[in-house]
Amino acid sequence: MTSTVPASLTRTADGSALQAVFLDMDGTLVDTEGFWWDVEAAVFRELGHELDESWRDIVVGGPMARSAGYLIEATGADITLPELTTLLNDRFEERIDDGVPLMPGAARLLAELSEHAVPTALVSASHRRIIDRVLCSLGADHFTLTVAGDEVPRTKPHPDPYLLAARRVGADPARCAVVEDTATGVAAAEAAGCRVVAVPSLAPIAPADGRVVVGSLEEVDLRFLRALITGMD
């Protein structure tokens, strides 16, 4: 595959071909997947419906429109998708008003990527208003750019968010490492042609060609990510 990235990005000083690192947000960098479910359950309870716990795996990691739409259909709640989307985002913002807990290893990994000036993007299916609030806990200075789910025509599981991130940092997707926690996010990254590190949060993810599965971000560092890319050569 011919790369169109600037020569300065093609290889680092140690010969690594890693050009950029893209990270999911909810469940990957911050421990908020459970927050979303709690908010959804509370909102639907107020609407007179109890959510079935089995639906949790269906809506986790998905874009707001898909998750909210599924829950409306499953419950028959008398609320429109735009109304529910606004309500869920409002309630989630209230929930994280005092900050969000970071996943183990997240702060260390972000600091290491910043220290070595690795182009790093936050790529999330969450809306911009939510990302900007969470960045107060993560530190916006750690990211070269951020991509929100409401800023692309098609969000995860489509490849668009990761292709956009690669284009904006001037990188070849095949030379980008992606860290994700859900099957939806993994599908998006792999469809974009990126190499994937899966750190499952709520549902298991199986290893596959071009994909490494680990138990925690504590197992992921810059050397690990560089090896993920150079290992395909």
UniProtKB/TrEMBL annotation:
Transmembrane segments: none annotated. Gene3D superfamilies: HAD superfamily/HAD-like (3.40.50.1000), Putative phosphatase, domain 2 (1.10.150.240). It comes from Streptomyces tamarix. Pfam families: Hydrolase. NCBIfam families: HAD-SF-IA-v3. InterPro entries: HAD-like_sf, HAD-SF_hydro_IA, HAD_sf, PGP-like_dom2. The lineage of its organism: Bacteria, Bacillati, Actinomycetota, Actinomycetes, Kitasatosporales. This is HAD family phosphatase. It comes from the Bacteria. Signal peptide: none annotated.
